[in-house]
Give the backbone structure.
Amino acid sequence: MNPRRLFPVLLLLAGLAAGCASGGMASGLVVIPPDVTKAQAPEGKWQGIHAIYLYNIGYVTYDPIDVGFASYPSYAYSRFAKVKLLTRASTEGGMFGNIRITHRGDLYEKHAKVIKPDGTETELKDSDYVTTVLVKDVIPNRTPPIDLKETQIIFPGLEPGDVIEYSYTSRDPSLLWLFSQVDAPVIYSKFMVARPQGRVEIQPVIYDPQKLDPQQGKESGMATGMAGYLSIGGVSHRAVYDIWTATDIAPIPFEEAMPPLVDVASGVQVWHFDKRWAWSTLGETYYKWFTHYGRYPSRAAKLAKQVIAGISDPRDRAKAIHDWVKKTLIIQEYAQLTPVPRSVEIETIDIDELMEEKNATPERVANLMWLMMHEAGVDATLVLAVHDETFPALEKLPSIYQFTHPLLALDDGTMIDTTNRLCPFGMVPWRFEGRKALWVKAGSVSFRDLPVSKPRANQRTIEISGSIDAEGVARVEAKYHMTGQMAYAWRKWLVPMRPKEREDSTRDIVTITAQKAEVDSFTFNNLEDPDKPLEVVLKYHVPGYSQLLRDKMVLKTGAFIHHTACPVLKDSRGLDLYVCPKPMTEKRFNAVRFPFLRFEEMKAQINFPPGFLLQALPKGFRTRHIEENTSVGARTSYGSDGGKNLIVLRQLSVNQPLVDKQGYPKLRDLIRRYQAQKDTLVTLELPKMD
């Protein structure tokens, strides 16, 4: 029996929610100071921004359902924000026109309004909030079930100059706050966290790359929260709140290839412990639950027997199980481990129910894979990892819930992903590469860095067959061959698209190569088979691509060799993530972060009309090193077969994931020069007339 069901469900006090949301006093605690509620946006203080946070406040108390139920309770997390919109872009859905909130279970409270420049206020209606279920039963074995949901606050009719206010209270397992925001300064930011009962140790971790030096303080008040609750026994109690405050916070400008926000923003993450346990104890507690306390479900054995029939090699068995699970289950994005108490057993993942519903978090995917591999005689290690949009795991901080995803590893070092069906066996997504992880087996735990794939493992090779005819029409066939993280990124981009969207995206790729290009055909091979290289074949032509000057034909190489386009994905915060970034701005605020190491090679042959001869080879360039002893190496070289054609070899190798601001000017100049090769002029001599 689940011990959580032994406790009565605690009632929410809606009246308390209304009282605290007003922003005044919360049982003696000042959530939003009166002068902050009246703050005005300063003029001219920051340039090139879209909006200004007048305030951004987080207020956290204990979750009314989980109080006293588990060793790691979740929290009632409230946020209050007031934002002045300055530009048309800030009013659109990609910025402040549409606020997205991810939450477990229903929101306890939500409120939003628009304030026009003349002071007119418009409260949002119920129809302005849209909620969808992302993952069902994300907290297993609860009655009623608790789903992972997303609520969108859709602000209607926004104009530059408007002010928006919004607040909400959600169930949240993490005590994380970022003072810095992208492209928007913050006048006042505060994070308030109540100390739970039974947590004798408070461990805040301050991350301050922006050197804000947030002020820390403590205040006492009634621990009732935005949603409010009655503590066990029906008696409320006072609590101590840890408070961090920062003011006049400059914005972090969004830049192509900027590091994840958690690497550049100042913030605080708070951890509560009842006792500072050893890592071995923490790992053993989670491992016992993950392995069903040694009582392995019979369904897993039956499934394993079916999947590995006729396969004897352990690694081949592991791959067969990995492939079958990913094809069978629908993996939902969810970055959280199940809270497991040390003192009692709780219900484990129900494999029969999982196979019936098919929707699965990465933790459930990992669990089914591990159980089936165990039954198949494959020794797989549990690897608890954290992706690059979360603060890195700290060995000095004894909490297994720093980690967000369980991966698996074989004894030969083979890594097994559990998060995305498009990621092949033997590879983990780049967002985990190089991050510190916890290897957990029965009786042992160890910290290690996840391996980083080499540039040649993440390769894009392009073979170009091109021609220019006497009328000046350029014709091109480009064959892309992609492996590793490069193929994974393209699949993440292309697979979710509808056929018309893929056609439009393909057209965009071609027009980036040559603006006036017309697509003749395109094909994708192995698009949904991650075990094979992804192949893309593009055929296009460009009318009027050359110029005739008396006895010469002149054309640029770009339509043939400028194949540098790559997908632009979205991170979890909705920011653009450039797969193959090419930062070239004169100045830069952030370091450059490449998503993964990669190697690109393009071989092109451009055939000329009969009798037309190349006047002279263009001048190429190269860095001193290509694949070693440099963060990024590049080359472009030219050759010809008797002047009848032009043969081009281009290479680009990203060998280090991070280039700091001191190294940026050199990188910028290299990328500019590499990109400029598209404008290289080629002169052909026309056939001589007798």
